[in-house]
Amino acid sequence: MDTNTVEDPRSAGRFHGREDAAGAVPEPVIHAGYATLSLRQVDEWNAVSKGTAFRLFKARKDQLREGVDFFYIPEGRDPELTETLRLDGRIYPSTVHLVLLTTTAYARMREEWHARTHNPGCGCPE
After folding, report:
1. Closest CA to 89 of 38, 15, 126, 123
2. Which residues contact 115 (CB under 8 A, 6 or more apart)?
3. Alpha-carbon distance values, 119 to 16, 86, 91, 113 (Å)
4. Which residues of 2-25 are buried (b: 16+ CB within 10 A; e: fewer)?
5. Cα–Cα distance, 55 to 39 (Å, whole number)
6. Is residue 54 classed exposed, middle or buried when 0-12, 13-18 and 19+ CB atoms within 10 A define those classes?
7. Residue 81: CB partners within 8 Å, gap ≥ 6?
8. CB 99 within 8 Å of CB 38
9. d(CA 106, CA 78)
10. What one-character DSSP code corresponds to residue 43?
11. In the chain, at which residue ranges do the beta strands (DSSP E only) sit?
């Protein structure tokens, strides 16, 4: 899969107000034909504390379709993938159940971040 397309979750950019964050641009995880990002990758790329991406994901999960917008891989379903991502530093060492986010999921998380951090009059598009 070409990860330089609009299907790449990175194409949306960092969270509003985090555009200058010091986090390195993550290399997507190709899963089921989709370019995806892990929760850790989202946290680190946006230079936010551990768990921020998870909370944003949970807030918008009802707007997402499992197997299309995100992939939930419970403990033991794909131990090779989980261990490879752990060794590569793409997931947290403590990760038990893996969540991989497609472009749609990441876009919804960015919307949630913006809703939580928006200040009226900041000049950003609402």
Report:
1. 38
2. none
3. 11, 37, 32, 12
4. ebeeebbbbeeebbbebeeeeeee
5. 10
6. middle
7. 31, 73, 98
8. yes
9. 22
10. H
11. 29-31, 34-38, 70-73, 98-101
* Contact status, residue 99 vs residue 70, Cβ threshold 8 Å: yes
Tell me the pTM. Answer: 0.90
Give the other-Cβ count within 10 Å of 30's Cβ. 12
- What are the beta bridge partners of residue 26? none
Percent helix / strand / coil, the chain, rounded to 5: 35, 15, 50
Q: Along the chain (126 residues), what's the average pLDDT of each consecutive run of 10 residues?
A: 63 91 92 96 97 98 96 97 97 97 96 87 67
What was the pLDDT predicted at 126? 57
One-letter identity of residue 100: L
Predicted confidence at residue 5, as pLDDT, reads: 44
Instruction: Output phi, psi for 72, to 5 deg.
Output: -105, 120
User: Tokens 């990175």 map to which residue?
Assistant: 10
